[in-house]
Fold this sequence. Notes:
Layout: E1 9-15, E2 22-24, E3 31-33, H1 39-42, E4 51-57, H2 69-82, E5 88-92, H3 98-108, E6 109-110, E7 116-119, H4 132-144, E8 146-147, E9 150-151, E10 156-160, E11 163-166, E12 171-172, E13 181-182, E14 190-192, E15 196-198, E16 214-215, E17 223-227, H5 234-241, E18 248-253, H6 263-274, E19 278-283, H7 296-303, E20 307-308, H8 314-326, H9 331-338
Helix pairs in contact: 2-3, 3-8, 5-6, 8-9
Amino acid sequence: MLNNANTESSILIIYTGGTIGMVENPKTGVLEPFDFGYLNHNIPELQHIGCNITIEQFTPPIDSSAIKPDLWAKVALMIQENYDRYDGFVVLHGTDTMAYTASALSFMLKYLTKPVILTGSQLPISKLRTDGKENLITAIEIAAATINGHPRVPEVCIFFENHLMRGNRTSKISADQFNAFESYNYPKLAYAGIDIKYNDSVIRYPANWNKSLEVKPNMDANVAILKIFPGITREVVEAILSIPTLKGVVLETFGSGNAFMDEWFLNALSNAVKRGVVIINVTQCVTGYVDMMRYETGHQLMNTGLLSGYDTTTECALVKLMYLLGQGYSNEKVKQLMEQSLRGEINR
């Protein structure tokens, strides 16, 4: 525990793994996880934040490429267990799958009224030019911020390189730039410059601050992403859509939700839908939305039983399918909820 002189807020940091928590072995040059119990030594600036900070650490740390739904559940349950003891939560996570985890937590943490801020870095925190220090310090400040006696940002977010974004609206856009994440279809929730400027009009505030947190950790991973491309073969499409255990598919289409109209393709989609597979249509474009009424091709896809993903990200659409299927809902209810905004993930 890092005890600061002027304790105003209590923040729990959950370190799952990732580049931010790495140090370079001086003998081998290999990046290895360091003990976050020594965080004060690495970031002495934390003494001046004015928060009481506690650190929980995954042992061993998990590379973000190895993250699975059971680890999303582990983070969600850690937040639930500590929910009444802390004012906010900062989750340190590898960047590669951070958008998936942020989306998952947004659905798992029902009736959330406290900040859950995910962050990480492109360079280890021990490096001279690391982005990790600023990302972590600002994420803690945001998690501790209040307005009118309530948390300033009571939702699951990603903070990275000056920008606070709704977690389930975010995608990783760069493997080697500090500005690694973007929220193309939804405004930033805050910008951290000299001051942190909040965009209160787009922050999602709860209708009832007194609702108790409910954690829904169950996920069903019998889903797939099918990205169409010019020349994709019948064998590839049918191989995916005919998987016996398949329950849901995120279909990445062209433009505003369009695809080729070969009879075999439409039949494959239609047959999968008739078997109970939920297929959600999302665009391959980084901005914009699916409108299956705009062109004839989109209209035909809708007639096969595809659902519109509107302006959701692929990461969020996939995780939302896993979440809804994991709740044991009927096929019709899953379809109904996929086209509704549950946590601000789509504009509906």
